[in-house]
Amino acid sequence: MLSSSTSRLDRIYKSLVTLALIIAALILTKNIMVPIVFAGLFAIVLLPLTKRLEKKTGKIFAIIIVLLISLLVVAVVSWFIISQLSSLVASLPGIEQKFYQLINETSDTLNQQLKISTEEQVQLVKEGLRNLSSYASDLLLSTSYLIYFFIQIPIYIFLFLYYRDRFMSFLSQLRPSSNLKWKDEIQQVVRGYISGLTIVVLIAGVLNSLGLLLLGIDHAIFFGFLSGLLTMIPYVGITMGAALPTLLALVTKDSAWYAVGVIGVHGFVQFLEGNFITPKVTGSRISINALAAVIALLLGGKIWGIAGMILAVPAMGILKIILNYSQSLQPLVVLLGDEAPDEEKPNLAQTQKDEKS
Q: What's the pLDDT at 104?
């Protein structure tokens, strides 16, 4: 009995040490691993189209054609973003003048109502600018990394698609008795999540843009689709997406009710996205409960920043599939999923039978 308890504690200790080493390695290799992981996910999405083209053009040409189509889509999206940004930059002088006017009015209000002196306000502004400068330097570093990111992604996608048979052979030799059914489930989850997420982003972008246009907010289409794009970061993205158009409404409009309207539009779209759009589009492909999703977001953000937050939910869904095929770790599936506990219990006998067959 004592030996069994000691053996169990030893396994737990080794598992925790291994987990700590994996997290440390992920943090240290962030700049290398993030583009590799994104490329792996995109390669899974592009794999069916690549297989169809291979029958007509051959492997290498099929991969090149798929990559060129993908790059064309990215180029169109980039052109849209750049054109909208150009329009925004052209209107900055007028916005700047109204911004200074808002600052003066806010300063007078703080001085009269809250008895905050001008000197104290200047000190607060200096501290804010100091923090903003640090964020700006981080943004410049992120921009340079973003260029590296988009250069590396197509290369990794090509290699993943070209050497996919070797990966399959590697997985087969790891567990010769397994039928690798979990691999097919992971591919379905990744494809469903990314395609569904793309549709959700487009729908949210259109709805946000329509709401901002009805309110008469400048550059409504840009801010609407920016908010839609930020919905990729669950729970946090909607707040980030609403901040800029709300600030713009405060600066450019005569009434604060426009800013309230912007918040109302984003809140309404978020309600529709969370309760109707996402469940209908993505279904239950990644059925993770809210607690598991929040913890995944926090851990992902701590390890890989914004990229980690974007990858957190699909990573948790993949982890849930893998745990489903582990008899010793299977109880963790109940903690991660959002189905009824009875629905989350997999058929172990059938799973073992499938792996032996």
A: 61
The token pair at 253 is 């409009």
DSSP for residue 339:
S
3-state DSSP assignment of residue 236: coil
The SS3 of residue 184 is: helix
Residue-range domain boundaries for the chain: 286-357
d(CA 223, CA 220): 5
Amino acid at 211: G
**Beta partners for 254?**
none
E-state strands within 35-156 = none
Secondary structure E strands in 107-146: none
Maximum C-alpha span of the chain:
80
pLDDT at 61: 92
Structure tokens at 243: 């901040």
Task: List the beta strands (DSSP E) in 173-307.
Answer: none
How many residues can be counted in the chain?
Answer: 357
Quote the DSSP letter at residue 255.
S
Indicate the DSSP class of residue 114: S
Distance CA 241, CA 222 (A): 11
- What is the spatial distance between Cα 27 and Cα 34, in angstroms, rounded to a whole number? 10
Most confident of 97-101, 207-211, 271-275, 332-336: 207-211
Using CA atoms, how far apart are residues 223 and 114, in angstroms rounded to an integer? 33
The CB-side HSE value for 166 (13 A sphere, CA atoms) comes to 5
Cα distance between residue 26 and residue 32, in whole Å: 9
- Location of structure tokens 């058929």: 347
The residue ranking higher by pLDDT, 253 or 351, is: 253
| 288 beta partners | 337
